[in-house]
Structure formats: structure tokens, C-alpha cells
């Protein structure tokens, strides 16, 4: 039995301690298991991850060695009915994001209408003038999207942020499921869970559908990685292997006769689709950062001529901007003609004087984030911050208010984790992964659940001490 934290929605247990419908099958199985055996399984999972090499790097630390992402063996479970409602909202949002990207690089109707301030992209480093007037093959900008969701009640899911540039974490979603099935095969015969193992096949198919029109036969797909020292290199190699695609670095590719070619043991051969995990600034030293050794000289010219597909499209990082996020309800309504099915978290734009005054007056109660921040860095969680940290953030806000947004501290839902003393509630979020192509939108059932392993913590990022769980969507 696990107790809920005050004012938080416990996804497994009702306030009276009874088990919710989603977890009933799992709980029936769990009650029959020996606690010592479950504890040994936790060590088994860690050993599996270590042998498989499921690691990540933390930048900016003196001891930035590879680390294991902690894995918790209690799944996060969502009913089929809940997932269907979520999927509709996710698809609506992703379609709006893609339409927004096209508009922003063409007629900018949303700015002409007055729904979005011009300054949000004019002064935005993620907005690329090189993309103006160009439409990617198939009209798709956001090929792979990760929508971060938080839950605050039985039917209350909210979008915390959008990841439309290079969303990561899908390899952990897949490995978490494989680990659970290896450790508890009999559990999956008792509880029917939607499959996620076909994600790499769907990713390859979706990328192939976005190949340039000039391509004949099966498109050649390559995963472009910055190299082995990148924090997500394991994922790059994993996805390339699972898709049957080539894993390449910039030095493996060359522009020849107006097309991108890959070096092989038998010479150079064309590449039609590049799933890049390299940031825009390093993608082409002839167009962006001239000192970059990670990209492909001349690739943007090939791209704009329609002879290669880059996924995700350069310039999609605008959608990751947290100031842009605050306008997403307007963006969804503008491009779909519908009210958003998934609400945003209330957001105060510190560039607005009235909002800034409110934030400065209530710093100890708010979460403050950098507009371009990620990974849990550069943020203030007011209720747990020291007086010194609050004073430092006050100074930052007064000096560069346009660089920050603020949000109320949410009562995030909790899911149980397995501890030495049994089950205990911890805060979670959810990142479903979405694939977009001219053939439509595909959402993998579940996604990556990240969990704050420290009691009371709201920070779920692996770089900040968080872990992951297997995410289950129940079949009807």
C-alpha cells in the first residue's frame, strides 16, 4: 500500500487507499509476488541496462562520465479510454505546430492577424531566415515530436512543453518495455498492454514517406549524430540499428553533383533522408556556424533544391521556445479553428511589464524558466528555493525579463516507485512520441514516463536525478 502526497492526484490509489481501475490487474499480480524477489529484480534491471549500454552523459560536470538512467520497475498505467482522449489532443496540437511552422516561413498570417507578436520570432535565434519561402518535401516540418504532458487530476492532462526540434528519449521507452517483458513475462499475459516495439519500423516508414519526389525506389535513410561524446549517442546508434538505417557523422557525408552522398567501403552512394540529431547551428558550416565540424558543408543548398530531406526541418526550434509555447492555445485555434483539447499550463510572459511585476512579487510560489532552456537547467522552483537563489533570479529577471517565463507550481500527479520500504509515490510526467508524414500522424501508445526519484521533488529530468518507467496503455 502507498500513501498519496497531500493535494496530489495518485494515479494508482484512490484517497481511501483502494486501487484505481487502470492498476487493478497489475495490483492483483503484485500482491502475489514476494517482496525480496521484487527487490532482486530491481538489481537485475540495473545489470541489464549496464550490459546493454543504456547510458547518458551530463554536460558541464567535472566527472561527466557516462551514467545509467535509473529505471523503476513499477509501470505507469493509462486506460485505453484515457489514451484515446489524449491522442486526439496530441494530434490536434502537432498538426497545428506543423501549420504554424509553414506559416511562419511563408505568409506569416498569424502575425498579420495580431494573434502573435512579431518580436517573438524577429529576435529569436531559432528562427532561420534561410528557411523563408521554402517548403520541405511532403510539406512536413515536424517529423518527430515529443509533447511533454503533466497530470493534475482524473481527467486533467496539461501540456508542459513542446519538443519539435530533436526530441529525445524514445530509445528509453523501447528499452524500458523490453526490460519489463524480460523480467516479468507472465505479467504481460495477465495484463494486456498496447505494443510499442514497432516504433522503429513506423519511424523508418514515416521518414521514407517524406523523401524528395525525385527519389525512385526505396529511399536511403541516415541518422546524423554529433558522435560518441554526445549525451544521446546511445539513442542515435540504437535507432539507426533498429531502423536498418546508416549511422553517420558529418565527416561521412559529402555533397556531390547537387546531392548528399555517404562514404562506404565501395565508394560514395546517395542519401535521401537525413534524420539529424545535430542542432541547426552546426548543420552546415557554409550556412550557419563556420567553425562547425559536425555538419555537412553545402547541405542546406541541397535541401533547398529539393534533393534531400532533413528531419526535423531546420528552424523548427522556434516551436520549443517557451514564450511561443505561451501562445499555443491561440496557435491551435488559429490553424485548426478549434479550441485546444489539451490546455497549456498558465504562463506569465516576463517580457510583459504587468506579468513581470506579478512574478517578482510572487517568486517564492512560482516556477521560472529560461525561454530557451531545457533539461531542467536554468530554472527556479520557488517553493523549494533558498533566499539566495530567489534573490539571484530576481536580479536575472530585472536585467533580462524577455528571457524568462513563469508558471504556477503544479500539483503533479504521482505514481508509485519500488523502494526498500515498499511502494512510495513520486511525481511523474509523460512524453508521447508523434510521427508526422504526408500519410498522416502516428502516436505511439504511452511514451516515456520520467519520474522524480527524490521524495517531494518536481524535477524529473535524468540530468537532475530523475529516472524512467515503462508506460502502459491498456488494451480494451
Automatic annotation (TrEMBL):
Transmembrane intervals: none
Location of the Circularly permuted ATP-grasp type domain: 75-452
Record-linked Pfam families: CP_ATPgrasp_2
SUPFAM superfamilies: Glutathione synthetase ATP-binding domain-like (SSF56059)
Protein name: Circularly permuted type 2 ATP-grasp protein
The organism of origin for this protein: Aurantiacibacter zhengii
